[in-house]
Known about the structure:
Blueprint: E1 16-20, H1 30-46, E2 51-54, H2 68-76, E3 83-90, H3 96-109, E4 114-119, H4 126-133, H5 138-143, H6 145-157, H7 176-179, E5 192-196, H8 199-208, E6 212-214, H9 223-233, E7 245-253, H10 257-275, H11 294-304, E8 308-310, H12 312-326, E9 330-334, H13 340-353
Parallel strand pairs: 1-2, 1-9, 2-3, 3-4, 4-5, 5-6, 6-7, 7-8, 7-9
Helix pairs in contact: 1-13, 2-3, 3-6, 8-9, 10-11, 12-13
Amino acid sequence: MDEIRGTAQGTAPVPLSVLDLVTVGAGNTASDALRTSVALSRLAESRGFHRYWVAEHHSMPGVASSSPAVILAHLAAHTDRIRLGSGGVMLPNHAPLAIAEQFGTLEAMAPGRVDLGLGRAPGTDGATAAALRRTERLNEGADDFPQQLAELTRFLDDDFPDGHPYARIHAVPGPVQATSPGGVQSPHRPPIWLLGSSGFSARLSGMLGLPFAFAHHFSAQNTIPALDLYRESFRPSEVLDAPYALIGVSALATDEEKEARRQVRAGALNMVRLRTGRPGLFPDPKEAEGTLGALEEEFIQSWSANVVHGTADEVRAGLDDLQKRTGADELMITSHAHRGELRVRSYELIADAYGLPVS
Length: 359
């Protein structure tokens, strides 16, 4: 349980963590975005953020996080203590054995600090999901999620029962190495988290006694119902004796309030383009300064209202209020801006606002 529950630092009401989509701004490259991720992971570690997760998305020019395991291996080489994980791996896109092998390898690289967050959505559009899965039967992946989860868990624990078709198949690195002559295996196994934006994964997490991560940053209207359902459904397990839920929160702190508004508006325009089938790089705020259509403006206002933004004090107040309203056990902050240095500065300002330690 120590690998799951964090400790609040400074004056923060709960542990604070980071969700990184490896945002690529117009005029920048994926290499630039990945360098920002390294800088951000180092900052997060030095300032007492609890964990650093990378999300899986596909076919989106402005999001360079299509391969979380690869990025996490890179970040593991540049950090020493902070927990690293997926927020999440979209399980229906992958064979459970492949995920067990990837995260077993990450665990070997960074023993005792790897999380495996799993989602059942594709993290992309239907056509891209079909290309990833090599099938047109996209509903099958979501419907089979509990079975896929059970299979992945057995690969991680190496405990398929005798007679099972996979009983002689082992995820390596993994527990089988401890049973080989002279074998010694790490006592750690990446803890599984379920991610969700509705009630399905909330209920399943509760029934299995797993930690739960809710995507408040793009499904705010469902946050409290989903968290209530998770807590009501919770059954103690070997993993957790009581519910533990974090929520993803979109937040951006800047030195000047005006800049926060400019960046959030640009981010909302980016979402308009994504939702209307025109995904692109995160736009320069100048692109969003002009007058847009009525429907676009309505969407931008609605989307921006769900982003906690402004000065550091304003963001701190917004995060405090959100935590009180939801009872979240942890806040996982995702900051989006056109320039990488603004993203890094946002986390620095939030850390300062809460008096997080400097190491």
